[in-house]
Write a structure and sequence with these properties.
Blueprint (H helix, E strand, L loop, with lengths): L7 H46 L3 H29 L16 E2 L2 H7 L4 E5 L24 H4 L2 H6 L1 H15 L6 H12 L4 E4 L5 H6 L3 E3 L2 E2 L3 E2 L2 E8 L7 E3 L18 E5 L8 H4 L1 H8 L4 E5 L6 H12 L3 E6 L8 E6 L2 H8 L2
Parallel strand pairs: 1-12, 2-3, 2-10, 3-6, 10-11, 11-12
Antiparallel strand pairs: 4-5, 7-8, 7-9
């Protein structure tokens, strides 16, 4: 395959540049807020002086107060979005934010579950089914530059090579079946229908076990596959919003759209693409997450932005977080940690 080794020096260089850019933007925002606060204070004083002679100015003062609050809210929101865009918010402890996550027993973690639950799963969930994780020890992506190969740009320029990666992944998944972790999640969803299931996996195992009805072909009603599902493909030109079953890529290495006969593409989210309602259902998911009180994070390193922000938002909202992971990574928030493989822990945690 036509892969390039991962350039860590370039990665670190870009990371430093991003951090410097963020620091500069943050400083500018802080300076703007301080300047604006001075202007607002001056306006308030002027309005107070006017109020001594004009009683009607009281309403204007109230208007200034409203503006001050709205302006402060807007600036704080802007700073948060900038931080999110540079992925500099973190769930790990630091000198400024000491570790708050607690290592607990399964029974203790079970007692912490409250209200509606969201179960967020990653590649670690499928390890016991024989599917290697992407980034861990022995990972599927350790020897290739995945963030280049799995991009739409690479798919466009080196279509054959990109499809070859998918062929290898398809062959690895072939014949694999859901494990006890998948089964426990599905049993919990059936017992508590309001449970929100979110998976980053494209291996179809959780969806297969869930056997959920379709919203329409390829889009399952009871699970959010935010990165897609390699069981399906769609038209690269988007001739219609429709999914098709993926053929055996050994027999059809570069499949075509069954309708327009133009190039097809895998039904996955490439690294250089954005989450959208059309294929990831992220707007619908965001609405459901508003009613969640507990997040159970299973087998994920939270390397992707949407999954990471689910956890960061839960930390900000002080929701209960239970992490099931052989190597836990969430160190902040109201977090309870269970160390070990999901196929051993979930049958007891979700029983």
């Amino acid at each position: 395959m036509d892969y390039k080794p991962f350039d860590w020096d370039e990665y670190n260089r870009k990371k430093v540049l991003e951090e410097e850019r963020y620091a500069k933007i943050s400083a500018e925002i802080k300076e703007t807020m301080e300047s604006s606060e001075q202007v607002i204070k001056s306006c308030n004083k002027s309005m107070q002086d006017i109020n001594e002679s004009i009683k009607g100015a009281q309403q204007a003062c109230q208007g200034i107060d409203d503006f001050q609050k709205k302006f402060s809210d807007i600036m704080q929101s802007m700073a948060l979005k900038i931080a999110q865009s540079f992925s500099l918010r973190d769930f790990r402890a630091s000198e400024q934010e000491p570790k708050t996550a607690q290592l607990v027993s399964i029974d203790e973690a079970k007692s912490k579950i409250q209200g509606n639950v969201c179960i967020l799963s990653g590649a670690g969930l499928s390890v016991a089914s024989g599917i290697r994780t992407f980034r861990g020890e022995g990972g599927f992506w350790n020897n290739i530059e995945c963030k280049e190969v799995l991009t739409y740009e690479y798919f466009t320029k080196k279509n054959k090579s990109c499809w070859q990666w998918h062929q290898e992944f398809q062959q690895m998944v072939k014949g694999k079946v859901p494990n006890q972790g998948h089964k426990s999640i599905v049993a919990y969803k059936r017992k508590f229908p309001n449970t929100v299931l979110v998976t980053q996996n494209i291996d179809n195992l959780l969806s297969e076990e869930l056997n959920s009805p379709y919203l329409k072909f390829g889009f399952f009603k009871d699970i959010y596959e935010i990165h897609g599902n390699l069981k399906f493909m769609r038209c690269d030109k988007d001739c219609e919003q429709k999914l098709y079953l993926m053929p055996d890529l050994k027999e059809t290495p570069q499949p075509k759209c069954p309708k327009c006969k133009q190039k097809a593409r895998p039904h996955i989210l490439f690294f250089d693409e954005s989450y959208q309602e059309k294929y990831s259902r992220t707007d619908s998911l965001q609405e459901e997450l508003k009613n969640v009180q507990t997040i159970i994070s299973v087998g994920t390193m939270l390397e992707t932005s949407y999954a990471k922000n689910i956890i960061l938002d839960a930390i900000d909202k002080k929701l209960t977080i239970i992490e099931v992971n052989p190597e836990p990574i969430i160190e902040l928030g109201n977090t309870y940690t269970l160390t070990g493989p999901s196929e051993e822990i979930l049958p007891f945690l979700l029983s």
